[in-house]
From TrEMBL:
It comes from Clytia hemisphaerica. One of its GO terms (cellular component) is Golgi transport complex. InterPro entries: COG6, COG6_C. Pfam families: COG6_C (PF20653). This is Conserved Oligomeric Golgi complex subunit 6 C-terminal domain-containing protein.
Length: 126
């Protein structure tokens, strides 16, 4: 995967994959009869598409500084959350995504704190 766009929005590959995921999950809504079959199918589809996609996002993010990396990952994870949020049987995956977003938000907050402490030159007094 190439580097993310300069505005750190999800790349075209991310958006295209999420569009494909949405189409596949939508078609499964009507194609599968039982609830357990539908849940199993959703989990398989999500694992097959999302795990490699998120891995690619992480690889791209690892080539940036920590603030840009965290921002890019938050943007990608948010788009995945938005995509999955309209479907049943995605609660577990949504919880995982929410936790990952929180970790990246914490990274941003710590980085901002370090910058402000450094700018105020109070780091040695803390």
């Amino acid at each position: 995967m190439d580097l993310p766009p300069p505005d750190l929005s999800p790349s075209q590959v991310v958006n295209e994959t999420l569009s494909l995921l949405k189409e596949v999950l939508s078609s499964h809504d009507t194609a599968v009869s039982s609830v357990s079959e539908q849940q199993s199918a959703y989990e398989k589809i999500m694992n097959c598409l999302l795990d490699p996609l998120l891995q690619c996002c992480m690889v791209a993010a690892n080539r940036m500084n920590s603030a840009d990396s965290a921002t890019y990952m938050i943007n990608c994870l948010h788009n995945v959350e938005t995509c999955l949020g309209v479907f049943e049987f995605t609660d577990v995956k949504l919880d995982v995504l929410s936790t990952q977003i929180a970790i990246h938000v914490e990274t941003l907050a710590k980085g901002a704190s370090r910058i402000h402490i450094g700018a105020l030159d109070i780091g040695n007094t803390l």
